[in-house]
Design a protein that fits this description.
mainly alpha; 6 helices; 0% strand
């Protein structure tokens, strides 16, 4: 719904889905939705909810890392990218994010 220009409806659907069942994958997608809308505090909260539900969910780490990196906070992003890669070595998002942050920080 967000992709077709209906962000308010998309947000309602995310909330309705989470009211029925709390899933790390849904919280992560909700975080991505918020991040795309530059609602960074809400995005961070959604990623944190996902990780509270499932500490081993790599996509929550990589997306939270992206959020930090986009905010210019590679210091916080790098541990998330590294954890995502420990859990899922083929995670391209985490690989690229980690490379970006390391280059940015001169590592």
């Amino acid at each position: 719904l967000d992709c077709v220009g209906k962000p308010d409806e998309a947000e309602r659907e995310f909330k309705a889905s989470l009211a029925i069942e709390q899933q790390a994958s849904t919280w992560t997608q909700f975080g991505v939705f918020y991040a795309r809308a530059a609602r960074n505090a809400e995005a961070l909260e959604a990623f944190n909810h996902a990780l509270a539900l499932s500490p081993g969910f790599p996509l929550a780490y990589s997306n939270r890392g992206n959020l930090f990196a986009r905010q210019g906070d590679c210091q916080r992003a790098i541990p998330d990218f590294e954890q995502a890669l420990r859990l899922m070595p083929t995670n391209i998002t985490a690989q690229r994010g980690l490379a970006y942050c390391r280059e940015r920080m001169g590592r």
